[in-house]
Design brief:
The structure is a single chain. The chain has 130 residues and is mainly β. Helices cover 12% and strands 54% of the residues. The protein has two helices and six strands, in the order βαβαββββ. Strands 1-3-4-5-6 form a five-stranded mixed beta barrel.
């Protein structure tokens, strides 16, 4: 199964998602915004704490379902004194996701500057001893 991957996600965010309630995340890292540009609500994403450059087979993470997604430009104005100000713009993606399960990277299919991060995931099962 091939899925888009969000990398460098904080461990506390992953822990919070594992509790089962949908959560909205705001991502501003360029590689994650580019990855989200090709995703639509209803699709699944792989999320991991591992940085993009370090992503490799065997890395663990979670599989989430995209509930809602918006990508927008945000403008920030910073005043240095009453006369001068600096205006900056940045692209940010807000995505609401719901936890589906845990998984592991089988193969990194595509990643790089300006390209979405795509990974092949290994099927994982959860067994409970009785």
């Amino acid at each position: 199964m091939s899925h888009a991957a969000l990398t460098g996600i904080a461990p506390t965010v992953i822990t919070e998602l594992k509790r089962g309630r949908p959560r909205t995340l705001e991502l501003s890292s360029a590689h994650n915004v580019v990855t989200l540009a090709g995703v639509e609500p209803g699709q699944h994403l792989f999320m991991t704490t591992v940085d993009l450059e370090d992503l490799a087979p065997g890395d663990a993470g979670i599989l989430v379902e995209v509930v809602a997604l918006s990508i927008a430009m945000k403008r920030q104005i910073e005043f240095t004194n009453p006369i001068f100000f600096e205006e900056r713009e940045r692209v940010a993606a807000r995505v609401q996701v719901r936890f589906c399960g845990t998984s592991m990277v089988k193969q990194v299919q595509e990643w790089g500057m300006g390209r979405a991060t795509i990974v092949e995931l290994a099927k994982t099962g959860c067994y409970h001893a009785v």
